[in-house]
Design a protein that fits this description.
mainly beta
Length: 118
């Protein structure tokens, strides 16, 4: 079955950096659009960034210029480099895999906590 396992979360001071990784298994990783979403305390889950099978990227305005999404199709991983972190980036970050073909496939990881605080 499909598994998405996130890692790399933790506590970081404002202005610091973290790198999240998501390891995928049980799927043809290279054909999926991969993404990172987050859910802050008392908030709805929101898009952070996505990367298509062709490498095109899309970012939320709030993270543009600070976060970078990348993928390694040989290793079946997608990463999110987060720089200049702010307290408002505090959230549980979820890895997502999505594919629209004959039907719609959508998978989620279990999430990893990122806390930005001094």
């Amino acid at each position: 079955q499909v598994q998405l396992v996130e890692s790399g979360g933790g506590l970081v001071q404002p202005g610091g950096s973290l790198r999240l990784s998501c390891a995928a298994s049980g799927m043809r990783f290279s054909i999926f659009t991969m993404g990172w979403y987050r859910q802050g305390p008392g908030k709805q889950r929101e898009l952070v960034a996505t990367i298509t099978s062709g490498g095109s990227t899309n970012y939320a305005d709030s993270v543009l210029g600070r976060f970078t999404i990348s993928r390694d199709n040989a290793q079946n991983t997608v990463s999110l480099q987060m720089n200049s972190l702010k307290p408002e980036d505090t959230a549980v970050y979820f890895c997502n895999a999505a594919l629209r073909s004959v039907q719609y496939y959508n998978y989620w990881g279990q999430g990893t906590q990122v806390t930005v605080s001094s």
